[in-house]
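REVIEWER CHECKLIST
Item 1: Sequence provided? yes
Item 2: Single chain? yes
Item 3: Sequence as submitted:
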Amino acid sequence: MLLIAKGWVQGALLVLLTGLLGLGFLAYRTYAAQPPIPRRVLAEDDRVVFTEADIREGQGLFLRYGLMEYGSIFGHGAYLARSHASS
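Item 4: Structure as written out by the authors:
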């Protein structure tokens, strides 16, 4: 004998399933989509600051040295990887 109506149980299950499907979709999008990486970044005087190869190399160092605890993949962790690799 249920202490609550069947509609409440069905509603709760619907909300649970909808939430799980939404989270699953967002997780898929997070791993399927990659951030845009520019081919090159120019300074105001048209001097090349860094290139796509520099970014990829920094990401590789970031992963190789496990710098996830030091910063984001978009900058600081890759900077620390370079300093670790050069020392």
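Item 5: Key structural point noted by reviewer: The longest helix spans residues 6-32.
Item 6: Recommendation: ____
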